[in-house]
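In response to a reviewer's request, we include the raw inputs and outputs for one of the modeled complexes. The two entities were modeled together in a single run.
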Amino acid sequence: MNARVGFSIEVAALVIAFFVLWFLPDVTGDYWLQLGFRICIYLTLAHGWNLMAGSAGLVSLGTSCFVGLGAYVAVESLNGFGLPLPLVLVLCGVAGGLLAVLVSPALFRLRGLYFTVGTLALSELLRLLMVNVSTFGGATGLFLQEDPPALPVLFRYALVVAVVASAAITLCARTRVSVIFRAVRDDEDAAAQMGVRPFRVKLGAFVLASALGAAAGGIQAVKLGAIEPYGMFGLQWAIDVLSMVIIGGVGLRLGPLIGALFVVILGELLADYPEAHIAAAGLILIVLIRFAPHGIVGFAAHWLSLKLLKSLKRVPA
Amino acid sequence: MTESTTAPMLEVRGLVKRYGGLVAIDQVNLEFRPGTITGVIGPNGAGKSTLIGLIGGAIAPSAGMILLNGRDISRLPASERARAGIGRTYQIPRPFLDMSVAENLEVAQYSLAPFVPASVAREEREALLARTGLADVASLQARALPLLRRKRLEVARALALKPRVVLLDEVGAGLVDSEITELIALIHSLLDSNTAILIVEHVLRVVRECCARCMVLNFGKPLIEGPTAAILSSDQVAAVYLGTGGDRQTIVADTAQDAISTVHVGAPEAEASVLASLTAPVVASAGGVALLQLAGIRAGYGQARVLQGIDLTVETGQAIAILGANGAGKTTLARAITGAISPSAGTLLIGGQDVSGRAPHQIAKLGVAHCMEGRRIFPTLSVEENLRIAARNADAVAVRARLEAVYDLFPILADRRSQGGTAMSGGQQQMLAIGRALMARPKLVIFDEISLGLAPIVMDKLYEALALLKEERMTMIVIEQDVDRALALVDHVYVLEHGRIALSGTPKQIFADPRLRHIYIGAAEDAAPSKGLAHATC
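The model returned the following structure tokens for the whole complex.
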């Protein structure tokens, strides 16, 4: 019963957020749209990362390989075939999912840290491939031949991608699928003994996260207009996303949202001092891991429940 | 039609499992027919749990076949075997700790039938929980369950698969008589004409009352197989399984009357002297300050108040036993003493110093060692590393001496010193856990349920070791299900009931006290007269 109420609340919140933000370009200027675009992209990536790490126990450093893949698929399909943008983004997602399926037999042989290193190797491998194959523009990368759409349009695309990601995560976290995910995360062997196929469950999380990541990479590439392998396959994507989820709260529903908002806004506030930005982000990460291992959301929930408990205790007295 | 009912549902042919040179399971053949319960018994380390792992799919066999309804499943992963209808329990429960009890069952339900209507799943779940006695804790986190509730959850999870073959690994360990009666009823209720059950069990009463046939496993080999009654009365089995000891009932009667002399028989004098390096020097307690003193200790987990005010004193050199039925608060008391949970009220004095609310490592530093329920061996460390880790602060010479003393106490650990800590049998792991507790050269050791799930002959060995320690004036608290063994060892006994001390006294007084039986056995009381009668006619 409770789960159903939670599900309805989440869906309602998502629908309201979508409609409110859809009209954001009508009321604000480019600065806020830029910010909103970035938050949407990061939220999508963070949702995917959180699903893998928080629900299936897969800690990935391969975010960039799917962002990069999406970027290249988007630019190639726009330049080569002139496909409409929505179809291109779907294609990016499909490509991301396919790559995940393709590499999973090898990657899932690795457990724990080895999986993490495996994903890192995969994104390095893809980057080197792009650098060395001239069809993909080599080290200089590719340019979008047409002009990219205006910022309000791009923002709305990014918003749709982020809302799709959030909806997919809601389905994973609020329905019966969630117990299966958590079972695999907590004790893969015991889960298998209960009929859960850990490989499929992990693959499901990996494919979904990869498809979302590639779609986000696709829209990001369209916005940039020019892509090159060092940026699109850079480790920075993985590190940004990982720190967002850790700051927000790994495995918690609101973790990616709060983390993405926090990191992007912090970056904005410290935009004039790039060194201070990195140092501040590092410091915050250290402090959070030491004192609030469940991130901002976990800390807030703990604090709130303590307050609630105290107020409840006060009532009968 | 008739053929399908008589054909074996699950068939094990020439099953072999080797770990390097060690043959854990050697040419085992078994047949399970629908509607039957088969027992597998044998001493610790005989390969019983390995057999369950092999059939359940957690362990891949080295050779042999496992046929489920004629289809070879020996190469299938555990998940496919579970889906094919094999449900197993783990000897040491492995619930999903952060999920509620109900969610633990949902995992099995939704992995088998992802689209089953929620109301149907809920009804099934509630029926299962009621059947396994977990209905009242359905929404509680599995982490909050005590060991025995977790064992029930293991059974419930296996049943949620609607299995055709149920493998039960030591589900009776640690239960008192009344609970065993319930368990036996539960096992019988699982059986229908489409189900086969395999029980691996030390509690022979379960085997005797459930299984039509049983097999004895020894060193991985089937020793003898046949009707349960014949097997259990066979001398060969008694020799393997129970050691050479005869009727334990009579030994118990003797030991309870004269605890110290019987336990020490056969213990070489030389061994005892080596142990001096493990026991902290007995300092004359100034002004008669007790080593450990609890006054009005209350403690619990969240909403559950377990200890309701415990007063207890342990003098240096004293051995005391904490007895009581499951859920009486024995382990919670141990946890309160060692600081694993902090008491909500009352004072805890160690050597006269108030340490209530201190962290476990601070209390450990004062010389309190805890040999925890469930052993808690570090799996990635070798036997010797497991031992050494408890003596990190001591100098090399002292560590060497203590290691020697532990190896002297348990020679098997010396042979296994470079093996992984959890690669040994349950009994050997328990020896390691005891040895590890001693390595800190504690002033006080708490032994929590050290005999749980072990064969009687192994229990004997452990208790012999404890008796030697006691002779060295080691101060100890023994928490035990096995009343007779505890009574034979200690100087003073406390019996807990519902978080309070219901009885206390010398073993002799407690043994003679009719209330003990009532507290401990409770609902099984009805069964007692008939048992007495059976004895009389023998």
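As requested, we also summarize the result in words. Chain A has a mean pLDDT of 87. The interface with chain B takes residues 176-177, 179-180, 182-183, 186-187, 189-198 of chain A (CB under 8 Å).
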